[in-house]
Amino acid sequence: MHNILVTGGAGFIGCNFVRHLLHTHPSYRVVVYDKLTYAGRLENLQDVAEAFPHRYAFVQGDICDREKVEETVRGHDIDTIVNFAAESHVDRSILDPDAFIRTDVYGTYVLLETARKFGNLRYHQISTDEVYGHIEGEHRSKETDPLRPRSPYAASKASADHLVHAYHITYELPVTITRGANNIGPYQYPEKVVPLFVTNALNDMPLPVYGDGRQMRDYQYVVDHCQGIDLVLHRGQIGEVYNIGTGQEMTNLEMVEILLDELGKPRSLIQHVEDRLGHDRRYSMDVSKIQALGWQPTHTPEQAIRRTVRWYVENRWWWEPIRAGKFQEYYRQVYGSRRILREP
Ligand code: NAD
Ligand code: DAU
């Protein structure tokens, strides 16, 4: 493994992974291939471009554009593809699923075809715990559980997982898949709940908690997730799937309380609003398989939330221009006419 194509590398998890890869593997060259949608930003990689001018390159392109993907793989002598590129926000998939089907499903197919055409390149797919759907009772999703996605986003990611598996079985493509729980940390676009709530609170705006706020999520620190992906990329068994998360869930209300305490802001900022359509109440994964490979998270969800809050407090240069731009239109669309719940 020497020349790695990281698709979607200008997004939140992708940029953290690229940083991790270049610092951890001094012989690797990394090519980021990214369309630069609203979520992909070159400033996420500015420090990387400066620190690694000879081992890092950026190509702007769409993963659905087969010619451009092939040209990039050929031109940079790529031997490994790690695919982060996706439309990633559930609320946007509810408003309009179109781009999700194109990028997350068709785009994955283009990358798989390219990997096959260039001599069965090593391929790693970044997937999500959302493919398992809402989890009942005390159950924890195992990698072998059936996929029961319930949002257009989750369904597009589950479709991609099926394609990746099919390419392994049919063409013996050397693939692995990781399914991550909710990531938080530096450079997460402020549409996602933790950066949205931190930046709202810093502006003394209400925090729109969907429904009763008792939905459960496993909030993991993004760098821990990246270390898990790296481990699977190097030591994972070909053809296998690995869940990555802390294995500890909390309710959204518990998350909000930690966040407000870290900021020193009052609980009165919490505002219960009309719930997300088809909202999954609980995700919960069994992470023993990746632990057996030698991975442990270095942050609890609470530590991850506190550390993330501090990053947003210290990095207004990053999020203030985002919030001042097109984001406002999105915010009005999702929250503008949302009913406020007096008794959630
Ligand atoms: P993100 O939205 O922050 O970044 C997505 C990146 O993909 C952006 O840089 C965007 O420009 C790029 N992109 C989108 N469409 C593209 C296309 N057609 N061609 C090329 N590039 C394109 O997303 P993220 O939160 O960093 O998520 C990255 C991956 O991890 C996704 O596959 C997502 O499903 C998965 N995932 C995310 C989480 C999470 O909590 N954020 C958890 C588990 C898995
Ligand atoms: O679980 C992994 C997934 O985590 C990833 O695959 C997705 O790409 C990522 O977006 C994330 O999905 P979620 O839907 O869990 O994340 P989000 O930050 O949108 O919401 C987290 C929880 O917070 C969820 O229960 C919905 C709730 N929420 C979210 C928003 C944006 C609110 O209560 N209010 C909000 O305004």
Short summary of the structure?
By secondary structure, the protein is α/β, with parallel strands linked by helices. The protein contains 13 helices and 13 strands. It has a domain at 3-184 and 221-244: 3-Layer(aba) Sandwich (Rossmann fold), CATH 3.40.50.
Average pLDDT over all residues: 98
The structure class reads: alpha/beta
Which radius of gyration do the C-alpha atoms yield?
19 Å
- Helix coverage percent of residues? 40-55%
Order of helices and strands: EHEHEHEHHEHEEHEEEHEEHEHHHH
* Oligomeric form: single chain
Name the beta content range. 15-25%
Kindly report the name of the CATH homologous superfamily of the domain at 3-184 and 221-244: NAD(P)-binding Rossmann-like Domain
Could you say what the CATH architecture of the domain at 3-184 and 221-244 is?
3-Layer(aba) Sandwich
Small molecules in complex: nicotinamide-adenine-dinucleotide, 2'deoxy-thymidine-5'-diphospho-alpha-D-glucose
Q: The CATH topology of the domain at 3-184 and 221-244 is what?
A: Rossmann fold
Structure, explained:
The chain is an alpha/beta fold and 344 residues long. It has a domain at 3-184 and 221-244: Rossmann fold. The chain has helices at residues 12-24, 46-51, 66-75, 90-95, 98-117, 152-171, 193-202, 222-235, 252-263, 288-292, 301-314, 316-324, 327-335; strands at residues 3-7, 29-34, 56-60, 80-83, 122-128, 175-180, 183-184, 207-210, 216-217, 220-221, 241-244, 250-251, 270-273. Helix 1 links the parallel strand 1 (3-7) and strand 2. The model has no long low-confidence stretch (mean pLDDT 98). Bound molecules: nicotinamide-adenine-dinucleotide and 2'deoxy-thymidine-5'-diphospho-alpha-D-glucose. 2'deoxy-thymidine-5'-diphospho-alpha-D-glucose is lined by residues 88-91, 128-130, 181-182, 192-193, 196, 208-210, 215, 217, 252, 276, 283.
